[in-house]
């Protein structure tokens, strides 16, 4: 038994985690109505004034018409004689506030080349099906340089076949008509058989648009996210209950045999997103994982653990068999410290499995570890 406990300590030190090696798919977040979300749009033919540095001479300037991060990219070629300001015609980037109607299910991500902005990727709008012959009229917005929006309508048309739209349904004269997203989104007017406006279909969560989330310096938000999670798993400790079988008392057992396997399930994480002097960092102080697993181990059959078997072993008789374990686990991670609790069943493999006292029996498992990568990770 002492050797088994030493083996379990070795396993912990070797892996330093019961379940740290994972591959995750991006989860979802729920944004509240007051989240500082802006829709990024553009306005063409805007005037931008360039003021040469004090004491400059005549400046020949080349520039890009698009604004980068809210600033015009200007390159000064030469300076010769004193001159005044230069008026440039540019395409201007505008940010339209979506709050207090920013709520929705979304992903958050940061562009690796520019970590000063957090982008919001909203999930698609609801699904609406229109039947053949339905009359509709489509509208799209444009903006002037002062963010004033103008809606442009296309001619009415009747659908030649059934069509499916991923758009938000809005009833006329409802509160939604006063929202920012309604006024600044593509929309479709749907008419009834008498030619009267029946409802709108609004591109509330425009998949072709960019949305950004703003936070003040040192301001942070917390959100929960769920992900599909899978990875390697080892369970250092197993506790098997004692039981009476056919008049033979099987004692309780604590084992620390080496085992390795895989698990898959759901990971629920709590994230903290913080703006640090214009750079956003995202951390997850704690997370919870739950899901099934499949493990493989080896067990040595002997006279102690075969007392209730079909053929109990003699004192000098020993044999190693493979054991397949399956069950479910609950794993908690707090700042790299990891705790796991598991329930499962052992299934011995091969003809001799029926002699093992714990074949097809229930057990409890426990794990404790620390992610070694957190010891050397760069601190923000």
Description:
With 380 residues, the protein is mainly beta. It has 2 domains: 2-27 and 217-376, no CATH class; 104-109 and 119-210, no CATH class. 6% of the residues lie in helices and 57% in strands. It is built from 3 helices and 27 strands. It has helices spanning 2-15, 180-183, 372-376; strands at residues 22-24, 29-31, 37-50, 59-68, 71-79, 86-97, 104-111, 114-122, 127-130, 135-143, 149-153, 157-158, 163-166, 168-170, 187-191, 197-202, 210-213, 220-233, 237-240, 243-245, 248-250, 253-255, 259-276, 279-301, 319-334, 337-348, 362-370. It has a 9-stranded antiparallel β-sheet. It has a 6-stranded antiparallel β-sheet with strand order 2-7-8-17-3-6, with no helix packed on it. Strands 10, 11, 12, 14, 15 and 16 form a 6-stranded antiparallel β-sheet that branches. Strand 7 and strand 8 form a beta hairpin. The longest helix has 14 residues, at 2-15. It starts with a helix and ends with a helix. The relative contact order is 0.15.
Features:
380 residues, mainly beta, 2 domains, 9-stranded antiparallel beta sheet, 27 strands, 57% strand, disordered N terminus
Characterize this entry briefly.
By secondary structure, the chain is mainly beta. The chain has helices at 2-15, 180-183, 372-376, and strands at residues 22-24, 29-31, 37-50, 59-68, 71-79, 86-97, 104-111, 114-122, 127-130, 135-143, 149-153, 157-158, 163-166, 168-170, 187-191, 197-202, 210-213, 220-233, 237-240, 243-245, 248-250, 253-255, 259-276, 279-301, 319-334, 337-348, 362-370.
């Amino acid at each position: 038994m002492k050797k088994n406990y030493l083996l379990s300590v070795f396993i912990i030190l070797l892996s330093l985690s019961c379940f740290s090696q994972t591959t995750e798919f991006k989860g979802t977040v729920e944004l509240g109505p007051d989240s500082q979300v802006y829709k990024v749009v553009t306005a063409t033919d805007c005037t931008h004034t360039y003021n040469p540095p004090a004491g400059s001479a005549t400046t020949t300037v080349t520039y890009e018409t698009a604004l980068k991060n809210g600033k015009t990219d200007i390159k000064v070629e030469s300076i010769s004689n004193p001159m005044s300001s230069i008026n440039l015609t540019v395409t201007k980037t505008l940010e339209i506030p979506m709050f207090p109607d920013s709520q929705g299910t979304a992903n958050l991500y940061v562009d690796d080349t520019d970590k000063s902005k957090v982008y919001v990727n909203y999930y698609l709008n609801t699904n609406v099906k229109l039947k053949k012959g339905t009359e509709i009229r489509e509208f799209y917005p444009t903006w002037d340089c002062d963010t004033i929006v103008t809606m442009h309508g296309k001619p009415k048309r009747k659908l030649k076949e059934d069509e499916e739209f991923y758009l938000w349904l809005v009833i006329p004269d409802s509160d939604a008509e006063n929202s920012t997203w309604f006024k600044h989104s593509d929309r479709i007017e749907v008419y009834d058989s008498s030619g009267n406006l029946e409802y709108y279909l609004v591109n509330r969560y425009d998949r072709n648009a960019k949305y950004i989330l703003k936070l003040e310096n040192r301001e942070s938000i917390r959100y929960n996210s769920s992900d599909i999670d899978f990875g390697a798993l080892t369970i250092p400790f197993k506790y098997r209950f004692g039981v009476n079988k056919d008049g033979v008392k099987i004692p309780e057992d604590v084992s620390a045999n080496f085992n390795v396997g895989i698990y898959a399930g759901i990971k629920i994480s709590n994230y903290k997103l913080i703006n640090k002097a214009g750079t956003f960092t995202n951390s997850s102080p704690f997370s919870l994982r739950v899901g099934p697993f499949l493990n493989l181990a080896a067990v040595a059959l002997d006279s102690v653990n075969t007392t209730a078997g079909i053929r109990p072993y003699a004192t000098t008789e020993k044999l190693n068999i493979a054991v397949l374990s399956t069950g479910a686990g609950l794993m908690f991670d707090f700042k790299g410290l990891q705790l796991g609790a598991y329930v499962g069943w052992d299934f011995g493999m091969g003809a001799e499995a029926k002699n093992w006292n714990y074949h097809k029996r229930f057990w409890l498992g426990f794990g404790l570890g620390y992610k070694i990568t957190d010891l050397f990770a760069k601190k923000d």
